[in-house]
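Hi team,

Below is the intake form for Transcription factor domain-containing protein from Cordyceps confragosa. Please confirm the fields before the structure is written into the shared record.

FORM ID: S-0412
PROTEIN: Transcription factor domain-containing protein
ORGANISM: Cordyceps confragosa
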Amino acid sequence: MVRQRPAAPRASPAIDDERYFYYFDVFAQRNSFSGKTRLFTDDVKQMGELQRLPYFLNSIRALGAIQAYKLGPSCQRRHIGDAYTSYALYSQAVTGLRKSLDGQQHGLSDSNRTALLWTTLFLGMFELMSDNSGRGWLQHMVHGTAKGLAACGPSICNTPTGARMFLQTRMFEVCRTIVFNDRSFLTEPAWRKASQRLWSNDGFSEEWRPLDSLVDIMLLCPDLRYRANQFCNAEDDNPSPGVPNEARDIASAGMALRDALNTWHKAHLADEEATESHRDTTPGGTTLDDCSLLTRLFWSAISIYLSGEFDYEMHHWTRFGLAVPTFDAETVRGHVATILALTEHALERSSLSPLLFLFPLRIAGARSVRAGRAQRARVLRSLDAISERFAVGQAIREGLTDAWIGMGVAVNDW
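The structure came back. Fields below:
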């Protein structure tokens, strides 16, 4: 093997395999997407048949290499090599994946289908770490992982490896749909039934947590927001003389979702919160495990999000005289305080992936326009901390500050 010259250091994937697999494990340990004890690397390591697929291995190596780059001392020559190698491996994974798909004349085998889904998921994670626009992640997530999962159909949950893939993708999908106010195929009845059946399976029933049923409800909220936005935009252009049936349906669906969230809260959080109130425990001083912390964070975020589907266009619903699931200002402030405190705690002390905090922070930030400067600064500090690990955090930050400026907040007032 020819030794690389110092002027152009390039870490060799073959030489650094052990190191990059190590940093892939480090990435997994620092990025739990559920707060549960099982890591996604546990699932990957059990799928020995995938280890023969170069594009799958290169996606793992690429993640390991970029994690090594982000954690390594910048003064070392190998630091630059890791950055170069991570992009080279990423490119090889993308090319290999495309060639594999082009070469499939009679459809994908189960193992190749699983490898495709995991590969696109890992490539999406790589994009989130390296691309601050978020476009690369959307390409892999929407046109890769989500499209591939949808093509497989709910029957993918019938196999252990497929079910594990579904559970990981589901967490990414709920974050994506809320950040971009988009619809998800996971709201289709067949997928909802598959998700619910999964937890009665002997291999998964012991892993169920209240977060899992909360996510099922959360996925329905951006779907309703999409409908509400379409309706309100049409009303802006051509107001209806009476009360349209679509308005009644949207308002009714919103109230049903609020009822579902309240029922979930009563069953899973109300007693815990009452006990904590007697201890005078502040949200930031929580002793919750990671999954419980994430559950509280998502609960507050989706509670405000559902209110925002209506109160930002309240003039329409007031005109129609329809009851909608909005919150008063004090309730919103309480949820925002919880989001900020729990996010700060999680960034400092948990193994939860910072990616999970992007949409709660975006929601809290949108509700900080009329708050004090200190609150807006807290939102941005958390986004800056996320940006150090995932470049996409910068895109969320810029979108939020642009929104603040558009709503009259001075540039120097955060």
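SUMMARY LINE: Residues 1-14 have pLDDT under 50 and may be disordered.

Thanks, M.
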